[in-house]
């Protein structure tokens, strides 16, 4: 029996963990199994053609909210020309309302409900032997054109029973390797499907070592743990991080290995801070779901937490500077209107995480909020990903404004390119939320959201906004913000040509500016500060560096060293000036 397992990923860099588990689960009995990964942006015609030419007996599709529309389009093209191929789907997007899904999609023969490692194997056995599918637990199937049968659910698997999903040699260079060390979640968040399962199961840590070692050998440099709450069990989590450190130590620092973990902030404590003190810098990245700080909202979604209590641990982690920190908010949750969301945003922004990810509620099939949608007036898109459109507390107009705010938050704050500019601009508003809202509405008024813009153009758009406020803010503040924007521009990349709007004005420059700039850049003292100086001739050094004077955030001369995609900044030492003069 020839089997093809298919995933349409959101991006090329993503990989699908589920089909790798399924391949490892069945290959002992069904060795002719192949994986095919595509992206949702590829031609549906080309995907269908490749699957048709595979001449498979069974094709399985992994379905999620981000790929269901495209997956069904491929299946509908494939079915008429492959009438004898059995088509089965699985994944979180089809695990609920399986009977209705089969009625709506007659091209599909069966739906694997929930965890599929054993269900899929038993389904293949039944199809190969001609046995009835009625004994395959965790399956919805089509007995005839009119009869659909929903079998009893399957028990949850202990993670020690699972096969190694990366037991096949493959090329993972430039891609994310998804790994799980737990299944389940201790919380009961009503927007999340993890609330539909009870308990947490753990992968034996040494099994994780084997998996990480293989993914690194295959070329992966980012290991993304899909555990819903990585730190639910501190002993397990710290052991996993021990292993990650030990395995990453086999590679040079420039390999850039990173492990991404989703954490619960309320489970952080002093022991975590002590552990991270000696951890390698930048090896881990923590994503922490705040979602909201509004008490009524937290009660409605069954997610009790006290952000103001555990935010201090986030600040201490930032002080240690060992891990990248991402904090998440969700707009459109029950009981959270414009003003309460504004407070949530400002409280999280005040922590200054490396990234502040603003998402929008997805009213998922099987979630508690989908069942309670009438109680909270949740109106959402009828098609995946079921994004919230309005609630009793947030109008559609307000959600559209938040979508615009989110886009600029991502382009500016999360890019990390505008730290000095944003610090200056935000300080001129009552709260950070007010700045991003007004900036986003300015973009909207200019029609800029209808176009794509380069990173360089984003500097100009921010300056256009600042310049438009000159009358209200005054010339002095506007000039100060331009200095900050100029500094961010130099930090972004080698300034081969500084735009006119960022050129310094004569009155803002020190005497003998041009001569000083050249002499300070070429000063021999840099060889004591920057080792690479001695290995460069004058032309190479000039191309790799820039020296500039800035008045903001404080008056100073800076040298920028553009080295291997990174910008290193050095204040010009005082003794250099004595020699130059």
TrEMBL record:
Alphabetized GO MF terms: 4 iron, 4 sulfur cluster binding; catalytic activity; cobalamin binding; metal ion binding
SMART domains linked: Elp3
PROSITE patterns: B12_BINDING, RADICAL_SAM
Signal peptide: none
Claim: tRNA-binding is one of the keywords in the record: no
Domain Radical SAM core residues, every copy: 171-417
Domain B12-binding as annotated: residue spans: 1-134
One Gene Ontology cellular component annotation held by this UniProt entry: cytosol
Keywords (A to Z) from UniProt: Iron, Iron-sulfur, Metal-binding, S-adenosyl-L-methionine
Pfam families membership: B12-binding (PF02310), DUF4080 (PF13311), Radical_SAM (PF04055)
Protein name as it appears in the record: Radical SAM protein
Organism ancestry: Bacteria, Bacillati, Bacillota, Clostridia, Eubacteriales
């Amino acid at each position: 029996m020839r089997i093809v397992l298919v995933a349409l990923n959101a991006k090329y860099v993503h990989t699908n963990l589920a089909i790798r588990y399924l391949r490892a689960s069945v290959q002992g009995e069904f060795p002719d199994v192949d994986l095919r990964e595509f992206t949702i942006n590829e031609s549906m015609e080309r995907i269908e053609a490749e699957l048709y030419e595979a001449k498979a007996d069974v094709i399985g599709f992994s379905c999620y909210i981000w790929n269901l529309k495209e997956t069904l389009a491929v299946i509908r093209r494939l079915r008429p020309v492959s009438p004898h191929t059995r088509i089965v789907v699985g994944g979180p997007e089809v695990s609920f309302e399986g009977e209705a899904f089969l009625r709506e999609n007659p091209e599909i023969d069966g739906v694997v409900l929930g965890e599929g490692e054993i269900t899929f194997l038993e389904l293949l056995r039944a199809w190969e032997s001609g046995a009835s599918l009625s004994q395959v637990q965790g399956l919805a199937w089509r007995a005839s054109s009119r009869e659909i049968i929903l079998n009893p659910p399957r028990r949850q698997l202990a993670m020690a029973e699972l096969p190694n999903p990366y037991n096949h040699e493959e090329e993972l260079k430039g891609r994310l390797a998804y790994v799980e060390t737990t299944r389940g979640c201790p919380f009961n968040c009503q927007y999340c499907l993890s609330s539909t399962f009870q308990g947490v199961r753990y992968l034996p840590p040494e099994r994780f070592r084997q998996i990480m070692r293989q993914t690194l050998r295959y070329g992966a440099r980012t290991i993304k743990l899909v555990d819903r709450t990585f730190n639910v069990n501190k002993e397990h989590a710290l052991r996993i991080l021990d292993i990650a450190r030990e395995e990453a130590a086999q590679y040079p620092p420039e390999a850039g290995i990173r492990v991404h973990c989703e954490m619960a902030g309320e489970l952080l404590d002093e022991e975590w801070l002590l552990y991270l003190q000696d951890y390698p810098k930048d090896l881990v990245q923590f994503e922490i779901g705040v979602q909201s700080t509004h008490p009524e909202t937290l009660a409605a979604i069954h997610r009790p937490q006290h952000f103001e209590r555990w935010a201090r641990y986030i600040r201490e982690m930032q002080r240690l500077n060992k891990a990248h920190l991402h904090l998440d908010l969700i707009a459109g949750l029950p009981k959270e209107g414009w003003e309460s969301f504004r407070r949530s945003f400002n409280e999280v922004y005040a922590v200054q995480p490396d990234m502040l990810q603003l998402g929008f509620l997805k009213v998922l099939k099987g979630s508690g909020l989908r069942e309670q949608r009438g109680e909270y007036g949740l109106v959402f898109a009828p098609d995946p990903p079921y994004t919230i459109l309005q609630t009793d507390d947030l109008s559609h107009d307000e959600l559209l404004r938040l979508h615009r705010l989110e886009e600029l938050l991502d382009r500016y704050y999360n890019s990390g390119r505008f730290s000095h500019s944003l610090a200056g601009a935000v300080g001129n508003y009552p709260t950070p939320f007010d700045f991003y809202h007004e900036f986003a509405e300015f973009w909207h008024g200019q029609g800029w959201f209808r176009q794509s813009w380069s990173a360089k153009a984003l500097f100009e758009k921010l300056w256009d906004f600042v310049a438009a406020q000159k009358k209200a803010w005054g010339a002095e503040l506007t000039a100060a913000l331009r200095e900050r924007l100029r500094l961010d521009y130099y930090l972004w990349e080698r300034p081969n040509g500084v735009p006119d709007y960022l050129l310094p004005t004569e009155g803002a420059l020190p005497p003998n500016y041009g001569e000083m700039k050249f002499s300070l850049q070429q000063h021999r003292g840099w060889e004591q500060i920057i080792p690479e100086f001695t290995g460069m001739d004058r032309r190479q050094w000039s191309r790799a560096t820039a020296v500039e004077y800035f008045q903001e955030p404080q008056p100073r001369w800076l040298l920028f060293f553009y080295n291997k995609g990174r910008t290193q900044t050095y204040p010009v030492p005082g003794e250099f000036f004595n020699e130059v003069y």
